[in-house]
Amino acid sequence: MKLATRLKQRRNTLKMTQEEVAEKIHVSRQTISNWENGRNLPDINSLILISEIYAISLDELMKGDPKMVKQLDKKIKKGKFFYFLVVVIAVLILLNILHLISVG
């Protein structure tokens, strides 16, 4: 399934509007529309925020979308993969810490 379809389906499942999602990740409603219609792809930081808002893993979001994989492949070749990996690990650590604080 393409990322665009997955984004729209998940937003609708959560009964959120494009405007609500846009507000939470600090982009325009039109940007959300463009992502959901496959005109553009979200950047990595936006994907991380979307995965948190939609409570879905990055793996689930991106899996099966050759366009997204190709975009990430280009970034890897440009040496940005390391930065992406560090950001993802940092977010996961932060989420675990927040979870521990809220449970404890």
Automatic annotation (TrEMBL):
Residues 7-61 form the HTH cro/C1-type domain. The chain crosses the membrane at residues 81-101. GO terms for molecular function: DNA binding. The keyword DNA-binding applies. It comes from the Bacteria. Keywords: DNA-binding, Membrane, Transmembrane, Transmembrane helix. This is HTH cro/C1-type domain-containing protein. It comes from Carnobacterium inhibens subsp. gilichinskyi. The lineage of its organism: Bacteria, Bacillati, Bacillota, Bacilli, Lactobacillales.
